[in-house]
């Protein structure tokens, strides 16, 4: 059941589209922004979701929709976790209570959700490229429309953003492209920002004083052309030392700012002026993450996102107790323990210190901790360089984000067979963040690479063992584990490894394999990862054998062939894509051995999985215990040569 819709303030209640915003008087926009901020806060307090980033973009959102003729003019939001105010103003106010719920609206922009969502986003640094494509298309078609990219300072650390800036400043066939880049500088990505560029941007508040003085001088000198021209030339020579926008002007953009991103009286006239200008424009606005909500302003990292409901007056609830550790916490503790045991270990994250569980490691081993910013490609090759010199890098990265560094995984790590460990958090279904964050493809895209291995632990202690096993190899190894907590398995403190490439039988069917009539009824479930546990529950009702395969690569081929010899049906279960996944590896093994055993492959279908509660999603996909049992019963008759009616009677 979705949360109840929060009350709608009066002025906001009159806004059903940006056209309604543009009909307001300028004096009403401040009230609209205040009501919009209140509504977003109340919504997220009921649904969960990103909070600080959305509170920080309220005035900017109002100003953009007030000045630009959306959706005719295109606005592309980088990352997209700051677009709740945008969704509210673009006809989705009455559905905000379904935010990130199964069947509800998404937490990120989606082209299939609204014509105002001009480009689907959820990862960073894509907005300038997309907006440039839209601007060039308008130019080619002779259409008078504007394209705006809104990008955060954290996203500017990614090379893709600079590739797009370079391309945009160059123009198309020698003709300047009309577009606007808005840099939303809140000195905050998710983890504390890092890098030379961020230090550069952090100094830019002082540029406000320069900008004010420059504009004042222009107003005074403009009536006296010779003096104005002299001042302009002097400015051109001096600005390289003072003006914060030099780097962007070198790319060919006309830089304006920085200005206060919460001051509508500054934002609106500036945007109106820039909308009339030709060529690439760059507006630098300074905002505060969590603006208007004191708790979020005081702790922007904590209030980046709400995991569930909370009382806005009290803030996020305190943890009721230690509870079951999450896989992320298991990784973080293992990282610290392994770092104590091996001085060669270094930890790398692409701007996800908190999300990947590396806060304690950073605190205890600051000299061996590296946050490279939102730069996954660099993170992978940086790790490769460290490995070349005898270090043992552990790259903590979400499964879906390693896709950005895939070329580097292939060329810089796999081909050179370097001992890099990839700790793939958020493997499988992730819930409310949806398809953009789901780790559906990692087994398929890792196991096809020579030299690379893929480990699939089934619980928290198995995860610790898998990470230890991976670290002790001399080649690339990925360990995938899901978001959230597991079954609450006891976690042993020792750093114990698995036997390399070997699975473990967790349950044996009571039906005797040495009797042909019994063997014809035997089912073996080969589980890869945490779906072992619903598989065990289903097996108890089916009297099936269950193997915890542990490795998607190298596959325990001896175990697969033995199970095929002693069972009538093999069932593979994985929380990853079926195409090219672990089940496919089992089929390849049997085909290579000339064994024609029937195999049922269960996993994620050939589609992008929507957002929603993970348990409900798994159930809808037939990957809970009930679904696994049901599918096996339905397929048994058609996939086994000698159907045995007694199977239906097993309970």
Task: List its salient traits.
41% helix, Rossmann fold, 651 residues, seven-stranded mixed sheet, alpha/beta, 3 domains
Explain this structure.
By secondary structure, the protein is an alpha/beta fold. It has 3 domains: 180 residues, Rossmann fold (3-Layer(aba) Sandwich); 153 residues, Rossmann fold (3-Layer(aba) Sandwich); 145 residues, Rossmann fold. 41% of the residues lie in helices and 14% in strands. The protein is built from 27 helices and 19 strands. It has a 7-stranded mixed sheet, sandwiched between helices. The chain has a 5-stranded parallel sheet with strand order 2-3-4-6-5, sandwiched between helices. A 5-stranded mixed sheet has the order 14-16-15-18-19, with helices on both faces. Strand 18, helix 25 and strand 19 form a beta-alpha-beta unit. The longest helix is centred in the first third of the chain and has 19 residues. It is globular. The C terminus is likely disordered.
